[in-house]
Amino acid sequence: MKAPKTTLIRGGKVVTGESVLKQDLLIRGEIIAESNDLSGCRADLEIDAEGLLVFPGAIDTHVHFNDEFMGTKSVHDFFTGTRAAAYGGVTSIIDFSNQAPKESLLSTIKNKEEEALGKALVDWGVHPVITQPYPETLKEIPLVVEKGAPTIKCYMTYREEGLMIEDDDLASILKQLKKAGGMLMLHAEDNNIIESNVSEMLRSGKTSPIYHARSRPPEAENKAIRRLLRTAEKTGGRIFIVHMATEDGVKMIAAARDKGIDVLAETCTHYLIFTDKMLEREDGIKWICSPPLRSNSVRDALWEGIHNGGISMVSSDDAAYSWDAKLLGAKRFDKCPNGIPGIEPRLNLLYSEGVSKGKLSLPRFVELIAVAPAEIFGMAPKKGTLSPGSDADIVLFDPLKKWTMNCNSLHMAADWSAYEGIKITGKIKKVFSRGELIIDGEKCLAEKGRGRYIYRKLKKGTFPFNRKAVPLK
Ligand SMILES: [Zn+2]
């Protein structure tokens, strides 16, 4: 079914990064046509949004679909992954595409085009991941930037997985990206610290899930961040630290930005919800992810980072492995594929734990899930806002509805959930993607393959999104 020509969303509270206003929204085709008092206006489809919040579609810039890792493969592909995304109010995703040995960097985009073909339900982009920093790979950096994939990721750890890049190569990659108008995303953990801790723990028989966290202490992350900031300062390139999960990290990013270093960071939903206590449970493998979950005080510091602007956005780091795959780590933490399925619950969790518990203002919430990802990753103003002319990616949200999150009430492809039994306030009622109603209550109406490639281009100058957080009102 094609979208109706015009849709009018009446009487909702429209939330943007700046304000909360009771307004009507008119969609024409795929685009937001007007936002105003439109009481005299008629449309093909009219929706009463009285009592509902109206958000821009959420954007998740950190997901791993079809990801081959630690001897297994993530169960979210472009159909199941984007379907779970849609149910979670996510209308744009950016997937990581690892460069295979001897493979060209351009193939990382082509591979994802093939994976998405006939499958994607929402719009999608690609972050190429450099694993082989050959001279030919570096030469291709401007080409992937031109193809609309200006954000490249590198890992500072996972040496045995063939993902790690050495500091000298990181500097060369960053220089090339700077010239081409791109940004380098980094998984920042010091590999030497981790490798020596892991062998020490295995030698002394410390193999249960909590030792995964103990083997990757905050200092492993902090040391890698310090190295990176020096490289960023020397080259003047733009860096983005993914899934940051330390207190010192938040402070270092804020201080570096004050010095004029072009750096921003995100954290992920699970670091704001859980602590390393979860790893001590019998089913602790559920919460094995890297960087690991940390102490209560680190969790508080990350919330604080969200308040003071040291953390610019929150992504999911969706890495959905099956329960059988997670069980590979039942007896040895180092064999457990690192990752938590999280593409669907992010908006709900941040609203419930953040907005409804008074930790986040509504505009700041929308900044974290939509505005900042769109601006930082070169999708604004098409995505991340409800301004006339933007894509009509819209979430209608009931702020009062109470429900319990678990594997059955979610729609992700993994056969288990880390978020079992969490009481939630607020529920997504409808989701529009480019003007088309794709989620209506429990129904998914999206046709396979309707999702389109998002051509992205970063803004010049310093980071476009460099302002302080909106204070809590
Ligand atoms: Zn990740």
Layout of secondary structure:
Layout: E1 6-15, E2 20-28, E3 31-36, E4 45-48, E5 53-56, E6 58-63, E7 68-69, E8 72-73, H1 80-87, E9 90-98, H2 106-116, E10 123-129, H3 135-139, H4 141-146, E11 151-155, H5 167-180, E12 183-187, H6 191-203, H7 210-215, H8 218-235, E13 239-241, H9 247-258, E14 263-268, H10 269-273, H11 296-308, E15 313-315, H12 323-326, H13 346-355, H14 362-376, E16 394-405, E17 422-433, E18 436-440, E19 443-444
Parallel strand pairs: 1-4, 1-5, 6-9, 9-10, 11-12, 12-13, 13-14, 14-15
Antiparallel strand pairs: 1-2, 2-3, 5-16, 7-8, 16-17, 17-18, 18-19
Helix pairs in contact: 5-8, 8-9
Q: Can you tell me about this structure?
A:
- The chain has a domain at 57-376: Alpha-Beta Barrel (TIM Barrel), CATH 3.20.20.140.
- The chain is of the alpha/beta class and 473 residues long.
- The strands form 4 sheets. Strands 1, 2, 3, 4, 5, 16, 17, 18 and 19 form a 9-stranded mixed beta sheet that branches. Strands 11-12-13-14-15 form a 5-stranded parallel beta sheet.
- Residues 466-473 have low confidence and may be disordered.
- Helices cover 30% and strands 24% of the residues.
- The radius of gyration is 21 Å and the shape is globular.
- It has helices at 80-87, 106-116, 135-139, 141-146, 167-180, 191-203, 210-215, 218-235, 247-258, 269-273, 296-308, 323-326, 346-355, 362-376, and strands at residues 6-15, 20-28, 31-36, 45-48, 53-56, 58-63, 68-69, 72-73, 90-98, 123-129, 151-155, 183-187, 239-241, 263-268, 313-315, 394-405, 422-433, 436-440, 443-444.
- The protein has 14 helices and 19 strands.
- The protein binds zinc ion (ZN).
- Residues 62, 64, 317, 319 line the site of zinc ion.
